[in-house]
Structures are given as structure tokens and as C-alpha cells.
């Protein structure tokens, strides 16, 4: 009887393990699936369609809003499983305040092709191309960047992270390992998340070619070399405030953080457009409209 019970228990554990592995593979497939979006026309803003070349030969598509030939420019980088459409309200606000704006679809998002979402790792190629395009398009102008979540991670993982004149990071995760754990824990609790998270992150190397240890944006934040504003939601469980405070601590000054009370992992502009303009655009005004220019 004891042997039979042990056999049944062993079989149950094996089946549970197989189920968890299969489930994690399915979830992983959903998480890395490309997010294509067909772009509608937006006649209310004078967008110019742009196509950027990348080191991988895959094009990156975007829109360019030019205010004037000598206006400072701002690059907008959307969040995961989104597209440049997410950034239109920010683009309009910046354009109305005298900025030229470049919105792009990061690789594997929107109209930009790609085989898989990589949470900022390969998306960094789009950031590289965007900065070089801007540097040629508006020579002599200051260039700022706003990255939301994965968009900010892509910036920090890029080769051009130290070339901008102002940086705004909205709710950007410090490490992929923490990001996955936090998101799983929201749905399952910490105990189960500690089991499921490794099953997800261990898929990265065989499926995408890099490990979770290779995707640590926090390790590069001290290489920005430009004034930094971090935007955080006080109630964000995806990227908790303490994690963003730790990122801020590792950045070089000048640096600051804007914490929005009662805000979760959400669109901060949509939550309070006026407050966003006061904090973010005022930060850019102070940084990009001054007399000093970052040495590229």
C-alpha cells in the first residue's frame, strides 16, 4: 500500500511538473509574440512618415513632427506590446510646446518587423537608429528622449544611451528577472511566482539567444550622462516605487523622480495630462532650452 501511494504521489508530482512546464512555455510564447499594428492616418498633426535602417537590416518605421529647423527634438519610445500610437498625446503636447518629435515603432511592434518581442534587448537597435537619424536630421539641436517601461529599457540597453541631452524614464524595470517575478506575483502570489518565474526566464536563452542576466537596464543607468527624470506610480506593482528609487540612486546627477500618488502601471499622461506637462515638459524646457549642449 505504501509503495502504491508513493507511486501515485510520484506520478502526480511528475504530471504537475509537466503541466507547469507546458503552461510556462505557452505563456512564454504569448509574451514574445510580435505585436503588429496597422497605422491609421492622423491628419490632425503634420506627421511625416520615416523609415529607419538598423544594424539588423530590418527597418524601423515612425513618424516625424518637425516644429522648426532649430527646435530641440524629443524621441518617444512606447511600452511593450504597444506602438507609436500610444505616444500621440505626448507628441501633440510636445509639438504644441515647440518641440520636434520622432515617434517610432520598436522592432516587433507596430509596423516595424521582427521575429519576437525581447523586452528591450533587440528593441535597442531601433533606439540606435532613431538617435543617428535625429543627429543627421537636426544637426546642432538638443535631443531628448522619453521611454515608457520597455521603451526605457530599450534606451538603457542601446549603444546611444549616453548621447542624449535629457532623459525621461517612465516606470522602467531595473532587471528582467524582477519584472517577470513582479508580474507573475500579481497573479499568483510570491510563493508560486518564485517557481514560475525561473520556468519563464530559462526559456530566453534557447528561444531568444540571451539570458535574463543580459537584460539588466539598471546596470547602464549610470552611463546616461544627461539630466534624468524618473516617473513612478506610487501604487505600481509591476515596477514598484522602491525599485525605481534604487535605479535613481545608481544614476549620476542631475537626477530627480516624480511620484504620482495612487497611480499603478499605467499611462501617466492619460492619468493627468496637465500634471505630466508641468513635470515632464517643464523638465525638458529647463534641460533642452538651456545654453549647454551634451557632447555627442
UniProtKB/TrEMBL annotation:
One of its GO terms (molecular function) is hydrolase activity. Signal peptide: none annotated. It comes from Superficieibacter electus. Residues 75-275 form the AB hydrolase-1 domain. PANTHER family: ALPHA/BETA-HYDROLASE (PTHR43358), ALPHA_BETA HYDROLASE FOLD-1 DOMAIN-CONTAINING PROTEIN (PTHR43358:SF4). This is Alpha/beta hydrolase. Gene3D superfamilies: alpha/beta hydrolase. The keyword Iron does not apply.
